[in-house]
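Weekly modeling sync, notes
Attendees: AB, CL, MP (scribe)

Item 1: holo prediction request
CL wants a bound-state model with S-adenosylmethionine before deciding which constructs to order. AB pointed out that an apo prediction alone won't tell us much about the pocket. Agreed to run with the ligand included and paste results into these notes for async review.

Input as submitted:
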Amino acid sequence: MKKQTDPFPEPLEEVKAHSEQLKKLIQKTIKVQGGKISFADYMNLALYAPGLGYYSAGLKKFGQYGDFITAPEISPLFSQCLALQCIEIMQQTQQTVILEVGAGSGIMAIELISELEKQAHLPEQYLILELSAELRDRQQKAIKARLPHLYKHFVWLDRLPQSPFYGIILGNELLDAMPVHLLKIEQEALFERYVALDDQDNFIWQDNSPENPRLEKIADSIRSIHSSLQHLIDKPGKAYITEVNLQAIDWIKSIAEILKDGAILLIDYGYSAQEYYHPQRSMGTLMCHYQHHRHDDPFYLPGIQDITAHIDFSSIAHAGKESGLQVCGFTTQAHFLMAGGLVELTKDCDPDDTINFYETARQIKMLTLPEEMGELFKVILLSTDKRLSLAAFNLKNFQNRL
Ligand SMILES: C[S@@+](CC[C@H](N)C(=O)[O-])C[C@H]1O[C@@H](n2cnc3c(N)ncnc32)[C@H](O)[C@@H]1O
C-alpha cells in the first residue's frame, strides 16, 4: 500500500551516487544490446541488478520509513488470517509444507508461523524463496531474533523446487514486483515500448515492433475485451498504453509444473482483465514509489525507487488453468479477511486498553476499507484439487469475473 504525502523529499548525495552507478550499468547494457532494451529488462535491472537494484541493495524499502507499506507490515492480523487459511488447506490436502515466495522483511513468515504454532499446526517446513540476497539476509536475522525456537523450521531456497512439490505456496505483493513489458496500441499498429538513450545518455522511450510474438497475441486479446477500446484508439493521436506481465504468467506455469498436491494463495493489487484493460485506463498502471510518494517516471533515480504494475488476475487464472490447476477462489482482500477470521482474531482485544484497541481498529481499517487496501487488493486461490474450499472465499467469490 502506497500513500502520497508532501513534499517530495530530495535524495541524499550518497543515494544519488548509488543510483548513478546503476544508471551506468543500464546504459552499458543498452549499448551492448545494440541501442535499446525492453522495459522488462530495464525494470529487471532497476529492481534486481546484484548489489545495485532496488530490491538487491540495502535500502529500507518497507514500512513507515521506507518507500511503501505492505499488509503484513501494517498488522499481524493479516498474516494470522492467512495462517488460519493455511490450516484449512493443510486439513483438506494433508500437506504441511509452506513455501513463501518474495518474503520481504520476513514479517509475514514470523507472524504466520507464530499463529500456526499457537493453533498447534506448525508446518513441517517453512521454505522461503527470495530473489534478493540482501532481503534473504534480513529475513534470516529477523526470524532468528524473533523466533529462535522455530528457526529450525525455516529453509531458504535458491530457486523453485526442481522435484515435485507438495504443500502451500504463498506470495504477498510478489507478482507486482515482477518486470513487465509495455505495449502501446494505436489504431491498427502495435508497438512495444523499449528503453534507449538520447545523445546525453539519458533514458528515453523508443517504440518499435514487439520482438516477442506472445505480446502480439496478448495485444489482440486486449483489443477484443472492450469494443470501446477500438473507438478510443481510432481517434487521431490517441494510443492505449498498458503492461503485460509475462514473467508472472511463466512463474504460474512453472509452479503448476512442480505442484503435485496443494494450493497457491497470491495477494496483490489488481483487477480482472475486464477492469484492467478498460479504455479509461489508457496510460496503464505502471507506478513508482519513493518514500511514500507515488509518480509515473520509471527513469527517475533507478535503484532508489520501487517500480511496479498492477496485476491482471485473469491472466494468472488463465495461466493456472492452462497448466492444469483449478481456480478455487478470487475475492477482495476485505472479503478474504472478514470471512477468514479477522473478527474472531480480535475477540480478545480489550476496549479498556485504549491505545491497543484504537491501534487495532486503525490497522483493520487500513486492511479492509475500500479506499485503503480493501478493494484494490485481491486474493486468488489456485489448487491441484477443485474441491478445495476455504472459508475466506465464502463471503464473496468473484471467480466468474476472471
Ligand atoms: C513488494 S515486495 C513484497 C514483500 C513481502 N511479501 C511483503 O508483503 O512485505 C516483493 C518481494 O518479492 C521478491 N521477488 C520478486 N520476484 C521474485 C521471484 N521471482 N522470486 C522470489 N522473490 C521475488 C522481492 O525481492 C521482494 O522481496
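Recorded for review: The longest strand covers residues 259-271.
Action items: CL to compare against the apo run; MP to circulate these notes.
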